[in-house]
Design brief:
Blueprint: E1 4-11, H1 15-28, E2 33-40, H2 47-54, E3 59-62
Parallel strand pairs: 1-2, 2-3
Helix pairs in contact: 1-2
Amino acid sequence: MNPTLSIIIVSWNVREWLCACLQSIERTRGDLNLEVIVVDSASADGSAAMVRADFPAVRLIAA
């Protein structure tokens, strides 16, 4: 059984950087079992909507 690596990203109004970060994780994950969690601190730039739309496997906690 392969262990799962959890990645937790806390973001606030960094939509473009967050998107690039999540794309990089997807591109380089290889065979790793990953759990990606984004905690969005009430961003006003559409970060949460972008995560929901473009990264459905990411667990989003929007505060």
